[in-house]
Each structure stands twice: as structure tokens, then as C-alpha cells.
């Protein structure tokens, strides 16, 4: 007897499997991989000075892209971080040099409520799994999907670059109609940009 699993169930299984692989990396390997991202892609992400780029403060075993964000700032980017307001909503608060970052709930860290809220032009997106067609599996809460929808409703089309380690790649992500594909993926092996078919 064959059992049919839904795309949501398939994604949950892939998420658990790939996050377990990421969790199994040694801290040293994660640091080396995170620094490799700066070396291999810090100058390859194309943007004009003043472009608003959203990064993230690492949680759990995520890549630490703070060195990459510092490099992008040195190239003229305005940085912001996602802040989870509630189970449905994230906003992007400006990250300025010298301003404090605080615990912002749900395990995240970001600028406090006094920081300006920005609409990012480029989002560096954490994820649990990805494939080479630009599909990703997030962490299951849908925060980025809703944030991207809100930006698009304002007429913004942010560029999405997934951030992951090579061990998080899978042959194929079960895509659903609401999924927003990535424009590129950055791992410790380098930056790959995808050609999206419109």
C-alpha cells in the first residue's frame, strides 16, 4: 500500500533532515564556511550604494553572516534586520553602527523599536533546505513569504538570496503555488544566481 504525503509533509521531513545535517557541523566548520561566504561573494552581490539589504543575526546553527553584512556596509549598503513582531509579522529595522541590538522574541536579535523600519531591496534569507532551481524550504512559520508579499503589495520586488551551507541542498524541493523562488543562493562554495522563468 502506498501512502501519499502532502507537499507540506514532504517539506517538514526535508526540513528536519537538512537542519539535522546543519546542526551536526562543528562550530569551526560553520565559522570557516561563514567566512568563505564573505571571500567568495562579498564583492559579487551587485547593488548600488544606498541599497537596503536585510541580513539576519544567526540563531541555532545558521551561518553567521555578520562579517558579510559588515563587508556589504563597507560597499555602501544600508543594513536592516528582520524583527518578529508576532507569529504573523516581521518588519525590517535599520541596523546602524553603534546602535544596540536587543532580544526581539522568538529567539531572534535585532534593533530596538526606536530603529527606522525599512523596505529592503535585497533580502539575505535563512532557510532549512534549497534546490538548484531556486526553491527553498524555510522554517515553517511563513514569515518571509508574508513579508515578501507585503513588499510586493507596495510595488517592491526585492531580490532574494538564500543563505545556507552546502549540506542543506536537496535534489528537488516540493514547490507549492504560494512559494516565492530565490534569485540566488550563497553557500560556503560561493554565490549562484538563478535564471527565473517568468
Please give a structural write-up.
The structure is a single chain. This protein has 198 residues and is an alpha/beta fold. The chain is built from four helices and eleven strands, in the order H-H-E-H-E-E-E-E-E-E-E-H-E-E-E. The mean pLDDT is 92. It is globular. A hairpin with a 2-residue loop joins strand 10 (184-187) and strand 11. The strands form three sheets. It has a seven-stranded mixed sheet with strand order 3-2-1-6-9-10-11. Strands 4-5 form a two-stranded antiparallel sheet. Strands 7-8 form a two-stranded antiparallel sheet.
Number of strands: 11
How much strand content do the residues show? 15-25%
Global outline: globular
Biggest sheet character: 7 strands, mixed
Sequence of strands across the biggest β-sheet = 3-2-1-6-9-10-11
Structural class, from helix and strand content?
Answer: alpha/beta
Q: How many distinct helices?
A: 4
| Regions with little confidence, pLDDT below 50 for 5+ residues | none
Quick summary:
With 198 residues, this protein is α/β, with parallel strands linked by helices.
Feature tags:
11 strands, 4 helices, two-stranded antiparallel sheet, globular, 198 residues
Produce the secondary structure layout.
Blueprint: H1 7-24, H2 27-41, E1 52-54, H3 66-74, E2 78-84, E3 90-94, E4 101-105, E5 108-111, E6 122-126, E7 129-130, E8 136-137, H4 143-153, E9 159-163, E10 184-187, E11 190-193
Parallel strand pairs: 1-2, 1-6, 6-9, 9-10
Antiparallel strand pairs: 2-3, 4-5, 7-8, 10-11
Amino acid at each position: 500500500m502506498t501512502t501519499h504525503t502532502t507537499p507540506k509533509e514532504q517539506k517538514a521531513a526535508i526540513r528536519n533532515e537538512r537542519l539535522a545535517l546543519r546542526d551536526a557541523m562543528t562550530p569551526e566548520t560553520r565559522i570557516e564556511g561563514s567566512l568563505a561566504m564573505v571571500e567568495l561573494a562579498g564583492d559579487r552581490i551587485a547593488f548600488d550604494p544606498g541599497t537596503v539589504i536585510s541580513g539576519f543575526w544567526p540563531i541555532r546553527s545558521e551561518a553567521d553572516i555578520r562579517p558579510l553584512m559588515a563587508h556589504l556596509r563597507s560597499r555602501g549598503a544600508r543594513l536592516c534586520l528582520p524583527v518578529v513582531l508576532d507569529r504573523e509579522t516581521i518588519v525590517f529595522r535599520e541596523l546602524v553602527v553603534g546602535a544596540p541590538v536587543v532580544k526581539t522574541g522568538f529567539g531572534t536579535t535585532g534593533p530596538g523599536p526606536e530603529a527606522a523600519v525599512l523596505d529592503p531591496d535585497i533580502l539575505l534569507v535563512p532557510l532549512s533546505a534549497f534546490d538548484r532551481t531556486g526553491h527553498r524550504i524555510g522554517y515553517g512559520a511563513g514569515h518571509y513569504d508574508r513579508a515578501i508579499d507585503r513588499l510586493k503589495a507596495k510595488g517592491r520586488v526585492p531580490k532574494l538570496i538564500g543563505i545556507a551551507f552546502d549540506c542543506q541542498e536537496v535534489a528537488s524541493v516540493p514547490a507549492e503555488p504560494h512559494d516565492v523562488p530565490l534569485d540566488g543562493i550563497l553557500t560556503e562554495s560561493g554565490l549562484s544566481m538563478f535564471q527565473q522563468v517568468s
